[in-house]
């Protein structure tokens, strides 16, 4: 990329004395800041002309990789296409210029979007009510666990402090339980990658608050023992929590509420589109079955008898208000909510049923086309994603990291690697429902080519990427000794 011509940091482009702007003449007379409020030396800012600044940032933006540049099969994270119409709706000034505290009568359209999305999510999941307040998947987990804790406490059932989490779970599950002040109990998976019901039984008792399950789990497998597991957990007085971060394979196929789950969250940014690379923005609505509705955070959006919409805060005593104080301000990430609602409306009730089957078809097609050259540890029909355990040929010493780096040379984003932790060389692939057969065939071709290179010219793979703006980085050093500030040369010489 030609941004090396211009330097990598704006500070490196600085020429003392260069100015990229001019301030208008001071219209307010000569007012001097009091001495003690003035800095002694000038701030160390880069001094660049306007074109240099524009080119610098434009070139950097061109180095970014997103779904709009190329295939992005990042397992678990669901990097699906975010249709442009979503952005148009989210950018409408009527939505963008709202203030969260403006009167209900002046924001009926926004409240209707909230209300309709709450209802759509209920219909898609089989649960009674949703709150759209939480701002990420992990935030939804924490909210859901607080709902569960409030429920047990409202019954005087204070012994229930443990949460059962499968060993294949996303790291946020145990983390959220810990943040909620609950104890984590791990349950093992069978060799088939599913929750081991026999290992679960001895863990159950009157101290269990809930069991968290991801379905399809992080191996992309459908947890077929859910009815049995839900029965056992309910019999001991615990609640069933569904991690619906990746709900796309279930859309139109099955509903958590029908399977015996009491509480769940959905990642709107994964399941219903919204670009979320680099950590945001997100939205993690939480849904509950009918008798848990009172424990959801308030306020909520309701439709009144006269057909208008209102923010309702019907807390009387405040005793169930444990959740609200810990949840994000106002009503969550409205722009993500708008995109999700737009996505659902553009697909419509009929087409949304295609999401699950197409996501499943695409993943299984890739898996079947590659499993002779990549190690498939669990032979099974997957849902929207699956996991390889590195290359099949273990004699090459080419690791999953090398394969991932080599993919960058061919213009693909790497899959998720070294997660889940169940295998040493995990390579987790999720194509999403949006990709064409031609795109997927292109990816399969490149994955096969890399497997061939690993056998014939392994050095090429092990030293990849060769075509990327930055070649292989020392990621251990980057994690252990991150350099996150820039020190100006002038400053160095002072020391
Ligand atoms: C992404 C993900 C989460 C966490 O969602 P965030 O929005 O990143 O907090 C939780 N569980 C699963 C299975 C996920 O894939």
Task: Quickly list its features.
globular, single chain, binds pyridoxal-5'-phosphate, disordered N terminus, 495 residues
Report the end-to-end length measured between terminal Cα atoms.
Answer: 35 Å
What Rg is obtained from the alpha carbons, in whole angstroms? 26 Å
Would you list the SSEs in sequence order as H and E?
HHHHHEHEHEHEHEEHEEEHEHEEHHHH
Principal-axis shape: globular
How many runs of DSSP E, i.e. beta strands?
12
Which small-molecule ligands are present, each listed once? pyridoxal-5'-phosphate
Q: What would you say the CATH architecture of the largest domain is?
A: 3-Layer(aba) Sandwich
Helix fraction bin: 25-40%
Strand order of the largest sheet: 1-7-6-5-4-2-3
